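Trying the structure run again after the queue cleared.
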Amino acid sequence: MGYATYDYLPDDDVAYPFVYLGEQFQTPLENKSQCLTGTSRITLHVYGRNDDRKQVTDIGLALVEEVKRLRVANRYSVGYATSGVTIMQDKSTGQTLLHEVIDIELDYVG
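Done. Tokens:
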């Protein structure tokens, strides 16, 4: 999608905005078949400068729309279930940033 994306929180000197692939939680469902089924909750984080609210919001919307189109991940069939978004100020770097937290829930079968 063209956004700077990290699976770790980068150093303070990276350019904004960027996407951080955060936490993932899985809830497997018990079944009688050999099929793995369940729910996976994934947290995406978008960081941007305080004056870039539109850009941060647009990135978050684009990420959610892309996840909604996702049908296969590795060997699993996946389907979008729900998502929620929170935008807050973040002052952890000495400058005021916007921190968008996107919680996405997917159902999977594999």
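The first helix runs from residue 53 to 69. Worth checking whether this holds up in the mutant runs.
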